[in-house]
Amino acid sequence: MWNRLALRQIAQRTISTASRRQFENKVPEKQKLFQEDNGIPVHLKGGVADALLYRATMILTVGGTAYAIYQLAMASFPKKQD
Protein backbone atom coordinates (compact mmCIF):
# COMPACT_ATOMS: atom_id res chain seq x y z
CA MET A 1 0.00 0.00 0.00
CA TRP A 2 1.06 3.51 -0.66
CA ASN A 3 1.77 5.64 2.31
CA ARG A 4 1.53 9.39 2.56
CA LEU A 5 5.26 9.96 2.20
CA ALA A 6 5.42 8.07 -1.09
CA LEU A 7 2.41 9.95 -2.48
CA ARG A 8 3.90 13.27 -1.41
CA GLN A 9 7.20 12.41 -3.12
CA ILE A 10 5.43 11.47 -6.34
CA ALA A 11 3.39 14.67 -6.27
CA GLN A 12 6.48 16.81 -5.66
CA ARG A 13 8.39 15.04 -8.42
CA THR A 14 5.54 15.55 -10.90
CA ILE A 15 5.22 19.24 -10.09
CA SER A 16 8.95 19.92 -10.18
CA THR A 17 9.37 18.00 -13.45
CA ALA A 18 6.50 19.86 -15.10
CA SER A 19 7.91 23.25 -14.08
CA ARG A 20 11.31 22.45 -15.62
CA ARG A 21 9.90 21.78 -19.08
CA GLN A 22 10.38 24.66 -21.46
CA PHE A 23 7.86 25.25 -24.20
CA GLU A 24 8.55 27.31 -27.29
CA ASN A 25 6.68 30.62 -27.25
CA LYS A 26 4.56 30.60 -30.41
CA VAL A 27 2.60 33.76 -29.62
CA PRO A 28 4.67 36.10 -31.86
CA GLU A 29 4.24 33.73 -34.80
CA LYS A 30 0.47 33.54 -34.25
CA GLN A 31 0.24 37.33 -33.88
CA LYS A 32 2.07 37.79 -37.17
CA LEU A 33 -0.24 35.27 -38.88
CA PHE A 34 -3.45 36.83 -37.61
CA GLN A 35 -2.37 40.46 -38.18
CA GLU A 36 -1.26 39.85 -41.77
CA ASP A 37 -3.35 41.84 -44.25
CA ASN A 38 -4.10 39.20 -46.89
CA GLY A 39 -7.86 39.61 -47.29
CA ILE A 40 -8.72 36.43 -45.38
CA PRO A 41 -11.24 36.91 -42.54
CA VAL A 42 -9.72 36.44 -39.09
CA HIS A 43 -11.96 33.47 -38.32
CA LEU A 44 -10.46 31.58 -41.29
CA LYS A 45 -6.78 32.48 -40.86
CA GLY A 46 -6.09 29.35 -38.80
CA GLY A 47 -6.03 27.18 -41.91
CA VAL A 48 -7.95 24.12 -43.05
CA ALA A 49 -9.29 23.28 -39.58
CA ASP A 50 -10.87 26.73 -39.27
CA ALA A 51 -12.42 26.45 -42.73
CA LEU A 52 -13.90 23.04 -41.91
CA LEU A 53 -15.30 24.25 -38.58
CA TYR A 54 -16.77 27.31 -40.28
CA ARG A 55 -18.45 25.24 -43.00
CA ALA A 56 -19.77 22.69 -40.51
CA THR A 57 -21.20 25.53 -38.41
CA MET A 58 -22.88 27.10 -41.43
CA ILE A 59 -24.35 23.77 -42.57
CA LEU A 60 -25.73 23.05 -39.10
CA THR A 61 -27.11 26.58 -38.80
CA VAL A 62 -28.85 26.58 -42.18
CA GLY A 63 -30.09 23.01 -41.70
CA GLY A 64 -31.39 23.75 -38.21
CA THR A 65 -33.15 26.90 -39.40
CA ALA A 66 -34.78 25.04 -42.29
CA TYR A 67 -35.88 22.23 -39.97
CA ALA A 68 -37.34 24.71 -37.46
CA ILE A 69 -39.29 26.48 -40.22
CA TYR A 70 -40.54 23.11 -41.51
CA GLN A 71 -41.70 22.08 -38.03
CA LEU A 72 -43.44 25.43 -37.53
CA ALA A 73 -45.23 24.98 -40.85
CA MET A 74 -46.31 21.45 -39.92
CA ALA A 75 -47.57 22.66 -36.54
CA SER A 76 -49.48 25.50 -38.21
CA PHE A 77 -51.49 23.16 -40.41
CA PRO A 78 -52.76 20.28 -38.30
CA LYS A 79 -53.92 17.12 -40.04
CA LYS A 80 -57.65 16.76 -40.58
CA GLN A 81 -59.29 14.02 -38.58
CA ASP A 82 -61.65 11.74 -40.49
UniProtKB/TrEMBL annotation:
Q: Look up the record and name the pathway of this protein.
A: Energy metabolism; oxidative phosphorylation
Q: Which protein family is named in the record?
A: Belongs to the cytochrome c oxidase VIIa family.
Tell me what gene encodes this.
LOC112837864
Pfam families associated with the record = COX7a (PF02238)
What topology in the membrane does the UniProt record assign? Answer: Single-pass membrane protein
Give compartment(s).
Answer: Mitochondrion inner membrane
* InterPro entries (alphabetical): COX7a, Cyt_c_oxidase_su7a_sf, Cytc_oxidase_su7a_met
> Which molecular-function annotations from GO does this UniProt entry contain?
oxidoreductase activity
Alphabetized SUPFAM superfamilies for the sequence: Mitochondrial cytochrome c oxidase subunit VIIa
Q: What's the superkingdom here?
A: Eukaryota
Q: Which CDD domains match?
A: Cyt_c_Oxidase_VIIa
May I have one GO cellular component term? respiratory chain complex IV
GO BP annotations, alphabetical order: mitochondrial electron transport, cytochrome c to oxygen; mitochondrial respirasome assembly; regulation of oxidative phosphorylation
| Name of the protein described by the UniProt record | Cytochrome c oxidase subunit 7A2, mitochondrial
Q: What is its main location?
A: mitochondrion
Q: What keywords appear on the UniProt entry?
A: Acetylation, Membrane, Mitochondrion, Mitochondrion inner membrane, Oxidoreductase, Transit peptide, Transmembrane, Transmembrane helix
Q: Name the residues that span the membrane.
A: 52-70
Q: Which PANTHER family match?
A: CYTOCHROME C OXIDASE POLYPEPTIDE 7A (PTHR10510), CYTOCHROME C OXIDASE SUBUNIT 7A2, MITOCHONDRIAL (PTHR10510:SF15)
